[in-house]
Amino acid sequence: MNKENKIKRRIIESAQNLFTKFGYSNVTMDGISKEIGISKRTLYTYFKSKEALLEDTVNNLLEDARIRVENIINRFYDGSKVDYFEQLKHLWDLMVEYVQIFTKDFQIDLKKSLPHIWKKINDFKDNQFKYSFSKVYKYAVENHYFKQDVDENILLLVHYNSLSAILQPEVLAELPFTTKEVIRKVYDIILTGIYTDESRKEYEKRKNLYN
Predict the structure, then answer these.
(1) Which partner for 23 in 39, 109, 113, 121 could form a disulfide, CB atoms 3.0-4.6 Å apart?
(2) Contact 68, 90 (CB under 8 A)
């Protein structure tokens, strides 16, 4: 990596830290330049505006997430022995990591200030994570990790639409939990069920009533 690319990388990493910590509106180019230890003039030679810097920062984060998600999914289908539960945990942890990067305050700020960038983040979430979990759940059904009457398409809809509705910044702001705690609670409900053992047995007796 040459000197210019190293400086650009430093700028993006510092900007990411400041944007996600304080929000887009509360960060200035002057503050970013001081954080890195370069002049504001030098900063503007790499990025013409704060918005351009944010866009590059978001693009960098999303590309990193895309590569990491694909690496996890490829392990399920490359013919090698895979620990399903370990890889599922990696995927969930990755989702938690990126949701925590895009904090509630940061998302609310973006939605107001730069809705097109907020939309880019949400479109990525819709496409990339939806695709990845569809592949994982398909694998789970085909390899008998789930009960055979479980339809992976319905499971994906329940899982994805539940998280999509709950992980909106204005919803998260009303909950007394961290984003990570919310995701874990949804995860537990979907994959381990909401019934006690006794209630689950009773449901099995009565489930035809719901047909």
Answers:
(1) 109
(2) no
Residue 193 confidence (pLDDT): 66
- How far apart CA 116 and CA 169 sit, in angstroms, is 16
C-alpha closest to that of 154 among 120, 195, 105, 190: 190
Q: What is the torsional sign of CA 121, 127, 128, 130?
A: positive
Cα-trace Rg, the chain? 21
The per-residue pLDDT for range 8-61, each reduced to its tens digit, is: 999 999 999 999 888 899 999 999 999 999 999 999 999 999 999 999 999 999
Q: Residue 92, exposed/middle/buried by CB under 10 A (0-12, 13-18, 19+)?
A: middle
pTM for this one? 0.75
Distance, CA of 79 to CA of 137 (rounded, Å): 17
The domains found in the chain, sorted by start residue, are 56-210 (1.10.357)
